[in-house]
Amino acid sequence: MNSTNNDKKEWFNEWFDSPYYHILYENRDNNEAKIFINNLADYFGFKKGEKVLDLACGNGRHSVNLNKLGLDVIGLDLSGHNIAFAKQFENRSLHFFEHDMREPYDVCCFEYVLNLFTSFGYFDTSEENEKAVIAAEMALKPGGQFLIDFLNPYKVIHHLIPEEIKTAGGIGFHLRRYVKDGYIIKDIRFEDKGRQYHFREKVKAIRRVEFLEYFKMAHLDLIDIFGNYELDSYVKNVSERMIFVLNKNS
After folding, report:
1. First and final C-alpha spacing in the chain
2. Is 48 contained in some domain?
3. 140 & 122 share domain
4. Cβ contact 96:83 at 8 Å
5. Whether residue 191 sits in one domain with residue 101
6. What is the dihedral of CA 45, 50, 51, 52, to 10 degrees?
7. Distance CA 237, CA 182 (A)
């Protein structure tokens, strides 16, 4: 998306489908992702052949690690670019599909639904967030478990770096971060091959109590809240993450 923005298209459709998204975040810590998945495996006691839905799977890095543990994994993402990339990893027990998490996928099909690495809070309304949680609940078998890994808004807002320049792929990305109307916003501006670009990331600063309301509406029972990828207990103003574990009873 250049300076002539198409306001009718949701920001995540534009940005996540852009090659520049992957350039900016090319150095994400894959080892951290593996450690998190291994910790979840110990916590949940995954059994070989269990079905897992990786909801908003990005380029598939978590799905691949889950599949290596013997799980039958489906990864869903709204970005066609992400899914096209992830499909290179497909096998008999690992598949990827383009899908909007606000809409139901399969019903009563999965032992686990995982939403990882702050892949939530992108929408403009609370109703859309509710729809996404309800759709996840619908995908679970009775007794199945849903995990949401979200940033801790208390920590992020108080430690925002207002401006910085990050160089990746030979491009200088000018990043500006701020909070507006309840959203944590990152403006991303850069030039490539003589052309100016402007993207924006916008994540709603959803508080713990708001999440609890979403879960209540979806008839999900809260089991645990962790504060980091080592699965230490959540501490409101200190923890890096809010990682919710929920159970479907019926």
Report:
1. 44
2. yes
3. yes
4. yes
5. no
6. 20
7. 17
Q: Alpha-carbon Rg of the chain, whole angstroms? A: 18
Identify the domain containing residue 135 by its residue range.
24-152+207-248
- Determine, yes or no, domain membership for 58: yes
- The pair of structure tokens assigned to 174 is 């000018």
Q: Same domain, yes or no, for 186 and 233?
A: no
- Token pair in block for residue 44: 């949940």
**pLDDT tens, residue by residue, 31-67:** 778 899 999 999 999 999 999 999 999 999 899 999 9
The number of folded domains in the chain is 2
CA distances (Å), origin 135, targets 103, 121, 239: 6, 15, 28
Where does residue 231 fall: left (phi above 0), alpha (psi -120 to 50 degrees), or beta otherwise? left
Average pLDDT taken over every residue of the chain: 92
Residue with tokens 């910085």: 164
Query: Is residue 9, in this structure, part of any structural domain at all?
Result: no
Q: What is the mean pLDDT of residues 228-238?
A: 95
State the Cα–Cα distance between residues 180 and 151, nearest whole angstrom.
17
